[in-house]
Q: What sequence folds into this?
C-alpha cells in the first residue's frame, strides 16, 4: 500500500519515486536532440569556408606557409596535367581558343579527333581555373601578411614573389591560346613549359621566404659548396629546357600531324642525356662535401633526396628510350624532372640563412640584461 509524505512524494516500499525524473536514466535528463544531419553538414561547410577565408585575409605565419605550399602544389600539378595532354596526343582535343570548339565553350565532339582527347584537353583547362583561384589567394595572403602582427609592415619581397603566380597564369593562358591557334608550334610549346617551370621556382622561393627574415643571406656551408648548389639549379633548368626539345622532336609532340623540331631525335636525346650526366656529376660531389663538412641536417636530407631522384630519373630515362618512348613512362619522367627541380631549389635555399621570421625585440635599458646587473649600494651618510 502506498503512503504519501508531506512533500507529496509517493513511496512504494522503501524506494522513493521522483515525479520530476525525465527519460534518460539515472544520470539526469537526456540531451536535447541536435539539428538534422543535413543542417550540421551545411554548418560545417560554412565553418570551413570561413576558416579558409580568415586564413587568406588574416594569415598567421603557419597559415601563410600552408597557402604558399598550395601554390607550389598547384603550379606543379598544372604542368603534370599539361604533360598528360601532350603525351596522350590530346593537344588539339579543343581545337579552338578560348572556346573548346568553334561552337561550344565546353567539351564537344570535334571532327577527326576522338572524344577522350577533347575531355583530356578540356579537363586541363578546368585545372587552370583551380590554379587561378589558388594563385589569387596566394597573392592576397602575401599582401595581407604581417609577420610582426597587426600594425607591422608587410613584406614586399613576399608580395612580388606571390604576384608571379597570377601573372604566370595570365601569361600561360595567352601563350596556351597561341599554341592551340598555331597547331602546337614546338617552340611555343617549349616556351609554355619553361614559363610554368619559372612559376614553380617563384612558388618554391615564396614557400621558403615566408618562414625567414629579411637579413642578408649568411652561408651555412663553405663557399665552394654553395656555388656548387647554385650550379645544380642552373644545370637542372637547362636540362628541363632540353627535355622540351626532345619531346617536340619525337613522336609525342602533342598530336599526330603537328609541327616538330627539324632535329635528329638521337642527337637531341644524347644531348639531353649528357646534361643529365653533368647534373649528376655536380650533385654527387655536392652531397659528399655536405656530408664531410657536417652541413645542416636539412641540407643533408635534401641532398640525399636529390641524389635519389636523379638516380631514378636516369633509370627511367634510359628505359623509356630503349622501349620506344611509351607515353606513360615519359609522363613519369616529366613528373620526376619537376621533383628534381623543386629539390634542387630547396637545397639551394637550405644552405643559407636570413634569420628568424620575427626578430627578437631589442633589449630595453630596463630589460633583463639591465636587471641582471648588481644594484649600486647607496653612499654612506655623512
A:
Amino acid at each position: 500500500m502506498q503512503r504519501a509524505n508531506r512533500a507529496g512524494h509517493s513511496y512504494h516500499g522503501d524506494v522513493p519515486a521522483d515525479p520530476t525524473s525525465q527519460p534518460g536514466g539515472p544520470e539526469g535528463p537526456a540531451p536535447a536532440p541536435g539539428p538534422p544531419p543535413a543542417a550540421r553538414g551545411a554548418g560545417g561547410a560554412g565553418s570551413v569556408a570561413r576558416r579558409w577565408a580568415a586564413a587568406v585575409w588574416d594569415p598567421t605565419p603557419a597559415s601563410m606557409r600552408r597557402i604558399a605550399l598550395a601554390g607550389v602544389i598547384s603550379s606543379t600539378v598544372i604542368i603534370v596535367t599539361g604533360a598528360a595532354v601532350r603525351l596522350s596526343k590530346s593537344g588539339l582535343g579543343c581545337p579552338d581558343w578560348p572556346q573548346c570548339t568553334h561552337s561550344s565553350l565546353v567539351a564537344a565532339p570535334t571532327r577527326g579527333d576522338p572524344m577522350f582527347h577533347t575531355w583530356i584537353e578540356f579537363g586541363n583547362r578546368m585545372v587552370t581555373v583551380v590554379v587561378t583561384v589558388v594563385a589569387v589567394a596566394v597573392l592576397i595572403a602575401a599582401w595581407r601578411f604581417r609577420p610582426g602582427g597587426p600594425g607591422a609592415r608587410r613584406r614586399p619581397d613576399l608580395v612580388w614573389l606571390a604576384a608571379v603566380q597570377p601573372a604566370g597564369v595570365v601569361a600561360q593562358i595567352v601563350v596556351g591560346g597561341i599554341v592551340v591557334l598555331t597547331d602546337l608550334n614546338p617552340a611555343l610549346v617549349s616556351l609554355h613549359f619553361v614559363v610554368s617551370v619559372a612559376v614553380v621556382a617563384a612558388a618554391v622561393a615564396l614557400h621558403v621566404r615566408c618562414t625567414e627574415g629579411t637579413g642578408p643571406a649568411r652561408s651555412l656551408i663553405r663557399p665552394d659548396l654553395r656555388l656548387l648548389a647554385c650550379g645544380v639549379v642552373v644545370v637542372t633548368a637547362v636540362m628541363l629546357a632540353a627535355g622540351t626539345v626532345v619531346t617536340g622532336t619525337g613522336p609525342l609532340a602533342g598530336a599526330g600531324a603537328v609541327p616538330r623540331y627539324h632535329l635528329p631525335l638521337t642527337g637531341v636525346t644524347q644531348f639531353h642525356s649528357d646534361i643529365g650526366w653533368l647534373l649528376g656529376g655536380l650533385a654527387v660531389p655536392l652531397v659528399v662535401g655536405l656530408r664531410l663538412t657536417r652541413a645542416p641536417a636539412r641540407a643533408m636530407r635534401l641532398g640525399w633526396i636529390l641524389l635519389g631522384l636523379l638516380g631514378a630519373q636516369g633509370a627511367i630515362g634510359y628505359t623509356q628510350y630503349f622501349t620506344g618512348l611509351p607515353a606513360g613512362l615519359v609522363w613519369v619522367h616529366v613528373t620526376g624532372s619537376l621533383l628534381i627541380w623543386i629539390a634542387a631549389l630547396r637545397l639551394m635555399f637550405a644552405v643559407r640563412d636570413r634569420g628568424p621570421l620575427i626578430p627578437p625585440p631589442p633589449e630595453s635599458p630596463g630589460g633583463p640584461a639591465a636587471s641582471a646587473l648588481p644594484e649600486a649600494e647607496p653612499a654612506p651618510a655623512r
Q: What stands out?
A: Strands lie at 3-4, 10-12, 15-16, 218-219, 352-353. Confidence is low (pLDDT under 50) at residues 1-28, 366-382. The chain has ten helices and five strands. The first strand starts at residue 3 and ends at 4.
